[in-house]
Amino acid sequence: MRTIVSLPGDGIGKTVLPEAIRVLEAAGFKANYVHGDIGWEFWIKEGNALPQRTIDLLEEHKIGLFGAITSKPKQEADKELSPELQGKGLVYFSPIVSLRQHFNLDICTRPCRAFKGNPLNFIRKDASGGFEEPLVDAVVFRQNTEGMYGGIEWTNPPAQVREALETHPKMKKFAHVKSEDMAISTRIVSKQATSRIIRAAFEYAKKHGYKNVTVCEKPNVLRETSGMFLQLGREIAKDYPGIDLWDTNIDAQMMWLTKNPENYGVLVSENMFGDIISDGFAGLVGGLGFACSANVGEEVAVFEPTHGSAPKYEQLNPSIVNPIAMFLSACMMLDHIGEGEKAEKIRKAIAEVIEEGKVRSYDMMKLRGGADAISKGAATTQQITDAVIAKL
Ligand code: NAI
Ligand code: MG
Question: Residue 368 CA to chain centroid, in angstroms?
Answer without folding.
Answer: 24
